């Protein structure tokens, strides 16, 4: 499995298809995170942006390999293991982006509440922002796993489904990503930090289930 992961990671790093999601994430961060803004609001924005990018990265990774090379890798191991390595590569890339974005927010934003009246502890806020970013990366990975091959193969259908699903899980009540992001926004108004551990656990379970479904179907569908 380690060799497959390294192979998929090398494909991703060398692929030009990695650039668009990276550029979009950088644009999101440049637009929504400015120096002096409240720290928790900025972490909320960064987490929401990462959810979309994480779903996009899954699509890049599961469709990045040429068909012939994918068939050879699947024959040498199994289609499920190849697909799992692709999804894990996307998740790892998303987690790295989330960590970089978290550090960026912590460095340039204002550690106070949204009304600038209450001091917000930077360490606790950064931990909450990092956990939120990971939760959004996991749920974005789940969306990408369910909205691309092997479940959806057509490019137009897959991309539209990915965008719509990512929007829904970000804004829908009951979504763990929504809970994590809105918790930061609410905390910013009060100057209180809550680390979203329950949303993180929920998104981890959802990402695991979605990836398991995708890998199982990868073994059944040519």
Could you give the topology of this structure?
Layout: H1 2-14, H2 19-32, H3 39-62, H4 67-76, H5 79-108, H6 122-146, H7 155-171, H8 176-190, H9 197-220
Helix pairs in contact: 1-5, 2-3, 3-5, 3-6, 3-7, 3-8, 4-5, 5-6, 5-9, 6-7, 6-8, 6-9, 8-9
Give your account of this protein's structure.
This protein has 222 residues and is mainly alpha-helical. The chain has one domain (2-220). It has helices at residues 2-14, 19-32, 39-62, 67-76, 79-108, 122-146, 155-171, 176-190, 197-220. The longest helix has 30 residues, at 79-108. The protein is elongated, with a radius of gyration of 18 Å.
Salient structural properties:
222 residues; 77% helix
- Low-confidence regions: none
Instruction: Quote the distance from N terminus to C terminus.
Output: 21 Å
Could you tell me the mean pLDDT?
Answer: 92
- Strand element count: 0
Q: How much helix, percentage-wise, in residues? A: over 70%
The value of Rg in angstroms is: 18 Å
Structural class given helices, strands, pairing?
mainly alpha
- The proportion of strand residues reads under 5%
How many helical stretches?
A: 9
Q: How does the major sheet shape up?
A: none
Integer tally of domains: 1
Mass-distribution shape:
elongated
Order of helices and strands: HHHHHHHHH
């Amino acid at each position: 499995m380690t060799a497959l992961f390294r192979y998929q990671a090398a494909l991703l790093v060398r692929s030009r298809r990695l650039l668009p999601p990276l550029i979009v994430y950088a644009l999101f961060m440049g637009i929504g995170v400015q120096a002096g803004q409240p720290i928790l609001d900025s972490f909320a924005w960064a987490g929401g942006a990462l959810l979309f990018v994480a779903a996009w990265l899954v699509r890049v990774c599961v469709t990045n390999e040429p068909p012939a090379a994918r068939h050879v890798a699947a024959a040498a191991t199994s289609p499920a293991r190849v697909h799992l390595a692709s999804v894990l590569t996307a998740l790892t890339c998303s987690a790295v982006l989330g960590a970089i974005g978290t550090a960026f927010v912590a460095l340039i934003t204002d550690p106070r509440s949204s009304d600038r009246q209450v001091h917000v502890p930077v360490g606790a806020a950064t931990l909450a922002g990092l956990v939120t970013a990971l939760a959004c990366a996991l749920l974005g990975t789940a969306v990408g796993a369910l909205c691309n091959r092997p479940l959806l193969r057509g490019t137009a259908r897959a991309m539209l489904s990915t965008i719509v699903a990512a929007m829904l899980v970000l804004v829908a009540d009951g979504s763990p990503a929504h809970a994590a992001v809105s918790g930061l926004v609410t905390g910013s108004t009060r100057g209180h930090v809550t680390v979203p551990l329950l949303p993180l656990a929920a998104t981890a379970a959802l990402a695991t289930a979605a990836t398991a479904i995708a890998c199982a179907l990868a073994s059944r569908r040519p």
